[in-house]
Amino acid sequence: MTGGDMAKPLLGHRSMEGDPSITPAAGRTIGVLGSGDFARSLAIRLVCSGFKVVVGSRNPKRKASLFPSAAEVTFQAEAVKKTDVIFVAVFREHYSTLCDLADVLVGKILVDVSNNTEINHHKESNAEYLASLFPACTVVKGFNVVSAWTLQSGARDGNKQVLICSNNQEAKRTVAEIAQVMGFTPVDMGCMRSACEIENIPLRLLPAWKIPTFLALGLFLCFFTYNLIRQVIHPYIREQKNKLYKIPIEVVNTTLPCVAYVMLSLVYLPGVLAACSQLYYGTKYRRFPDWLDQWLQHRKQIGLLSFFCAALHAVYSLCLPMRRSHRYQLIEMAVKQAVEKKMNIWVEEEVWRMEIYISVGIIALGLLSLLAITSLPSIANSLNWREFSFIQSTLGFIALVISTLHTLTYGWSRAFDENQYKFYLPPTYTLTLLVPCTVILAKVIFSLPCIQQRLLRIRRGWEKGRYVKFVLPSATGEYSSGETSSNV
Ligand code: NAP
């Protein structure tokens, strides 16, 4: 995972926080239409932030007790008359019932906070619909990504960003100013056409996790089937032994590390492919294919899923001795040894293999935990680019190397034992080594000075076969210009 990826702000739009044109607005009167959950939380936060609040309800008498005493609760028309900025905390389907207020709303700013129940539910966004109903008003879309709970608990406990868009710069600035006083970070999302995108944001279900999750599930299914054939189906067909009991723990526990290990290597493989492409074309300005772009963007999630599988593997492994089947096998082994009168069963090589295997496994898991923790936005934001890239890139690669050692010490000489080839299928760990070893080998090749230098030059803008203009200072201090081939 590269620093660039993770250090990126949540949304690639301009944050309006610290904008000198935004001036304090506390003390101003803000209107809220509606008296539901959102309206109530909004009124509480506005009052706490120093604003005067006037709530417009169809039934003010009944609703007044739900609001803080500092907020005035009155009829909709009365509320609208007292302020220039009105939050419309009403569902889209009820917007038309507000049309009676059209005359008193002329020239006012309406803040559309509404959300939909489905992505792209309507042809036009709710904000555009509101604007079409009230052409004499200025509509600003905003605050819909903030929940009533976040409003109540204060900006520090929830998402701090408030996405704002409008066709009117002045109105957008006014709403941004209010958001800032309330402790939120206003983010300018541009003109009203962005409203649809803003309304879709709260409805998206982990969009960045879809591909990595399918990838992890796909790998899990493949390795699970492979292990099932080797550990359960093979003994049943060859020796009529029922090993079905192995499925819930043993088969799962041999599958999880395979997924974790391969996923970890898939975090670093796209970087290797990108470097190969840059070396081949001799430029960094050529676009990567879409699939590689997508892959590069999902490295954080792939890494976190790798950590998740590795953590599960650790827990499963710790629980192995708790199983009844394990206890039976231990007793069976002890009885067998007693019958065969074997006194010393200590195998030095096996002891060392196991000690090293567990130790490197623990180190690999420790490093993966560090990578997972530093990919959390709050931690990532506290690191500078170098620290972040050292942890995610260098330590991440070391984690891959240590995981490879863990896999090799697990396999030891089993790859050369023909009894391990069930149905001629090689042991699972030999398959998992394929991608990680390719990545490690490629990284070693890229670290050779001749290749590293070329890659560095390309990443600093050098291009194969391109003539570049240069400007050199002369002995007299004047500058002379010329052209040279950057290939030289
Ligand atoms: P709610 O609890 O159902 O409140 C809606 C309010 O709309 C009612 O209390 C009602 O107040 C008012 N209203 C005005 N005309 C109406 C009509 N003809 N029929 C029914 N009600 C009418 O909903 P909410 O959760 O506060 O949500 C309000 C808006 O905020 C929605 O657009 C929603 O998408 C948006 N939003 C909510 C959240 C959240 O966490 N709840 C988060 C983001 C955005 P009166 O009876 O006093 O007129």
UniProtKB/TrEMBL annotation:
<dbReference type="InterPro" id="IPR036291">
    <property type="entry name" value="NAD(P)-bd_dom_sf"/>
</dbReference>
<keyword id="KW-0285">Flavoprotein</keyword>
<keyword id="KW-0812">Transmembrane</keyword>
<feature type="transmembrane region" description="Helical">
    <location>
        <begin position="388"/>
        <end position="409"/>
    </location>
</feature>
<keyword id="KW-0472">Membrane</keyword>
<keyword id="KW-0406">Ion transport</keyword>
<dbReference type="InterPro" id="IPR013130">
    <property type="entry name" value="Fe3_Rdtase_TM_dom"/>
</dbReference>
<feature type="transmembrane region" description="Helical">
    <location>
        <begin position="302"/>
        <end position="323"/>
    </location>
</feature>
<dbReference type="GO" id="GO:0008823">
    <property type="term" value="F:cupric reductase (NADH) activity"/>
</dbReference>
<feature type="transmembrane region" description="Helical">
    <location>
        <begin position="356"/>
        <end position="376"/>
    </location>
</feature>
<dbReference type="GO" id="GO:0046872">
    <property type="term" value="F:metal ion binding"/>
</dbReference>
<keyword id="KW-0813">Transport</keyword>
<keyword id="KW-1133">Transmembrane helix</keyword>
<keyword id="KW-0560">Oxidoreductase</keyword>
<keyword id="KW-0967">Endosome</keyword>
<keyword id="KW-0479">Metal-binding</keyword>
<dbReference type="GO" id="GO:0006826">
    <property type="term" value="P:iron ion transport"/>
</dbReference>
<dbReference type="GO" id="GO:0005886">
    <property type="term" value="C:plasma membrane"/>
</dbReference>
<dbReference type="GO" id="GO:0010008">
    <property type="term" value="C:endosome membrane"/>
</dbReference>
<keyword id="KW-0408">Iron</keyword>
<dbReference type="InterPro" id="IPR028939">
    <property type="entry name" value="P5C_Rdtase_cat_N"/>
</dbReference>
<comment type="similarity">
    <text>Belongs to the STEAP family.</text>
</comment>
<feature type="transmembrane region" description="Helical">
    <location>
        <begin position="429"/>
        <end position="451"/>
    </location>
</feature>
<dbReference type="Pfam" id="PF03807">
    <property type="entry name" value="F420_oxidored"/>
</dbReference>
<dbReference type="InterPro" id="IPR051267">
    <property type="entry name" value="STEAP_metalloreductase"/>
</dbReference>
<dbReference type="GO" id="GO:0052851">
    <property type="term" value="F:ferric-chelate reductase (NADPH) activity"/>
</dbReference>
<feature type="transmembrane region" description="Helical">
    <location>
        <begin position="211"/>
        <end position="229"/>
    </location>
</feature>
<protein>
    <submittedName>
        <fullName>STEA3 Metalloreductase</fullName>
    </submittedName>
</protein>
<keyword id="KW-0186">Copper</keyword>
<feature type="domain" description="Ferric oxidoreductase">
    <location>
        <begin position="259"/>
        <end position="401"/>
    </location>
</feature>
<dbReference type="GO" id="GO:0015677">
    <property type="term" value="P:copper ion import"/>
</dbReference>
<feature type="domain" description="Pyrroline-5-carboxylate reductase catalytic N-terminal">
    <location>
        <begin position="29"/>
        <end position="116"/>
    </location>
</feature>
<keyword id="KW-0410">Iron transport</keyword>
<feature type="transmembrane region" description="Helical">
    <location>
        <begin position="259"/>
        <end position="281"/>
    </location>
</feature>
<dbReference type="Pfam" id="PF01794">
    <property type="entry name" value="Ferric_reduct"/>
</dbReference>
<keyword id="KW-0274">FAD</keyword>
